Amino acid sequence: MTNTVLETARKLGPSIAARGDEIEQLGTLPLDIVDAIRPSQAFRLYVPVDLGGPSATAWDGLEVIEEYAYHDGSTGWSVAISCTSSLMASYLPEEWGKVIFGDPRSITGGYAAPAGEARSVEGGLQVSGTWQWGSGTKHCTWIGGGCRLVGPDGKPAPRDDGLAFPYVFFDLDDVEFIETWHVSGLAGTGSLDYTVTDAFVPEGRWVQIGVDSPTWENPFSRFSFYGLLALGIAATAVGIARRAIDELVVLAETKRPQGSSRPLRDRAPIQADTAIAEAKLRSAWLFVEETVGSTWETATAGESPTDEQRRLLRLGATHATQTAAEATELMYKAAGGAAVYKTSPIQRCFRDVYVATQHAMVAPRTFEVVGRMRLGLETDTRQL
Asked: Does any domain span residue 382?
C-alpha cells in the first residue's frame, strides 16, 4: 500500500508542479488536486490499521511528504499537516475514532496549542476561540483546535476526570475562516485563522495530547507524537531543497552571467556550492532516516522510545530543516539575478523553505533543548 502512495506522489508531482502559480494565487490547494491525492490515503498515512489505515511506517510517510514537497512546497506542507494530524486517530474513543478517521477520504487539521476556551456542559463541551496556522483546513473533513477548560469566571477549571487541555474536533458548520494568510512563502497552504463561537463538542470528541492512553495500541501510539510532527516539517523542507538543487542544475546549463561567455556550470564556485548543498542535504536526510528507523524498531517491538531516541528525532528534524534552508540559499545565490523573478522556481523554493524554518517544532531554539540533554543537564522532555 505505502509503495503505491509514493508512486502516486511521483506520478501526480509534475502536474502539481506545473500549477504552482495557481496554488499560490488561490492561497490553498485546489480541490481537484486534493481529490487526486486523496484516494492514495496520503492525507491519513498514520491512521492505525484498526481504522482502515494503509499500514504505513513512520518513514513511509516522510518519504511521501518529501516527494510532494519536491514538486510543490505548499502541497508537501498540506500533506504533512494532515498526515501528522492523523496520529490522533489512535487516541480517540472508539466511537469517534471510527466517525472521524474510519472514512478513507478523511482529512484532518488544526492548531494544537490551547488558544480556545471550553466550558463543561451537559453531554460535552461548549467551545469558543480563534486559532492561527490552520494549514489545509479548507479541504479538511474535520477541523480541530486546542482548548483550556475554564469556569464561569474564565479561570482554569479542569474536570474531575482530569480533562484540562483537550484538542477538540469541530463540525465544519461551526468553523468560520478568517482570510489572514498573506505571506512570503508556502502561500498555497491555506494556513489562515479560523474561529468558532459556542460550538458544542460531544463527549469524548477530543484528545489530550501527551496525556491520554491510546485506544488502539500500535507503533504510532508508541512513537513520539511531537517527534513526528517536527519530522513532517523537516520532510517538507528537504523536498523543497532537493527541488532547488535540481533547478539550479538545469539553469546552470544555459545561463551565462553578465559579461561572461561561459555558462554557470563551468564556474568553479558554482560547482563547489552545488556539491556542498547536495552533501549537506543528503547527510541531513540520512540522519533522519537512521533515527526514524531505529525508533520505529523500538515502537514495533512494543516499547516506548527512550529519551535519547526522542532527543535524536527532534535534533534530526531541526537539523534537516535548517540544513535544507542553507542548501536552498546556496542555490538561490548561485542562480544570481535569475532567481529574483517570480517565474523562477528557485525563488519560490527560497521563500517556501524559510517559512518552514519558522515552525515552532523545528525552530533553532530546539538545539538548546537537545543540547542540554546531551550535556547531561536537567531538561523538561515533555515536548519531545
From this structure: no
